[in-house]
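Quick one: Kynureninase from Citreimonas salinaria, structure tokens please.
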Amino acid sequence: MTDFSATHAKFHIPDGVIYLDGNSLGPLPVAAPERMQKMMTAEWGQSLIGGWNEHGWMAMPRSLGDRIGRLIGAEPGHTVLGDTLSIKVFQALAAAIRMRPDRRVILSDTGNFPSDLYIAEGLVDLLGDGYTLKTVAPEEVEGAIDDTVAAILITEVDYRTGRRHDMARLTRAAHDAGALAIWDLAHSAGALPVRVAAEGADFAVGCTYKYLNSGPGGPAFIYVAPRHAEQAKPALAGWLGHDRPFDFDLRYTPGAGIERMRVGTPPVLQMAALEAALDVWDGVDMDDLRARALELGDRFIAGVEAACPDLVLATPRDHASRGSQVSFRHPDAYAIMQALIARGVVGDFRAPDILRFGITPLYIGEAEIDAAGDTLAAILREGAWDDPAFRTRKAVT
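--- reply ---
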């Protein structure tokens, strides 16, 4: 049984703050500053360039990849870390399309994160030759999979509403139609049990700065199923994805398996923070985490609906269809969220009308859930959000 009081103590949450935005940026792990300081002074400071060999920096993308792989149900040796999520989406998508050369359609849904769609649009524009991106409503994805589809590109949990796709069902439908399945786990990894191997995913990608708590700008990861590891060819082929990068061969030879999905020099300082963050997960059972998140989510929904009749639930009530966040709709959602943040309850806003709250049991319990609901109710009851200062949009919402 996971001890969530113990995990709570492993994060720094500022005094007076209830943090319900870990689905956007996870809080600072208590151990991260010391780990990063060691990296900077004892490793970089003393070893200089020798740190790549003396301290194993070059191997970290694979070793940390395997630690993330455990959390997403991947086979060992098939997850690697590095670069940004957009780059990993591009790599996975380009590789998948190349594996289905007789097909021209990428299928996604209108609830997907815009960046994924931008990447897909850019790729089809680059390829030309009849390639298209087709988007349908989330509930229509399965019915739209046919023999024209090369790959489906799906984010498992909708970033706005928390709606969760059925990975096993959609992957099976894709395979039955001869297509490949690419899954974006940005709002899944570290939030709920993911089983990419058992559920047949061909590729999966995700970021580490949300539920995995690696810090702002933390590196992304990519998973390639073992059956594709030696066939997948990333269009974005970097020097660290070469079979012998330090031969400096002018001709690209893909590295073995997942190594070919490496691109640029790994972000060593950021990986140090991630390493400290992943230590927290060593004592966490993902099924325990899921059960607790659903329990807290139900509690928050019940409390807010009872006290805030003007808010409309946007998140599915059904547990199987829900990620690890709760979202409500209101025409003045932005101003309400700013008023909430001013009182120490930190969630975030997503256009056009979403108040979004991350339910993260590693550092959130019943007391925080209840206090957040009470604060939200007080703001609405008092009309405290109706202030010009709370209506002024900031650069990051």
